[in-house]
Write a structure and sequence with these properties.
Layout (H helix, E strand, L loop, with lengths): L1 H12 L1 H31 L9 H45 L5 H34 L15 H47 L6
Length: 206
Amino acid sequence: MATGNVWSRWECGGTVRDDAELTRIFLSLALVANVVLVSAIVLGMQIGDVTRTDRAVQSAIGVHMLAGLGALTFATLVHAIVLTYFMGTGRWLEETSRAYQLDLRLYQQSQKIKYGTLPGMIVCLLLLIGTGALGAAADPATPVSLDGVLGLKGSTIHLLVALITIFVNLVVSLSQYLAVSGNAAIIEVVLGDVRRIRLERGLPVN
């Protein structure tokens, strides 16, 4: 039953093609996520004096907050997609390797790649959350104020952390892209071994 389930994924999914497509999709999503993060910062920098109560400034603050929340949410979603991908392919590689009695080193290598992405992902998520929290604290309408911390205004602290967040997110996105590409290569090797074994046993291949 296990072997049948494993092979059904080969026949129905074209796993190598799926992984190659996912790699391209992830690259597109990561680029969009970083672009919207940069766009949110640009909108924030155009606000000017946040203490002014005129309609134009308050409208700009509202647009920046919405753009920032959208950017943080989208960036978090991209990281969640990467985590889900590695969880799914890791399970598939384990089942396939055991069902066809393959060398587990490829599965272990995939696991190493997966766990290698986690520290950067966690740092990004913490920075994204922290940036949003600092943005809320920098809003003059909130009772919380960070003005005077480290001799800086709350808006300046928010901007500095936001810039750090974008830089780290760019670096982590690149590392994730390389990790997904490397994992796709491992899956391709495993599927090649599975195809060879099935041919040797006279079993149908796609």
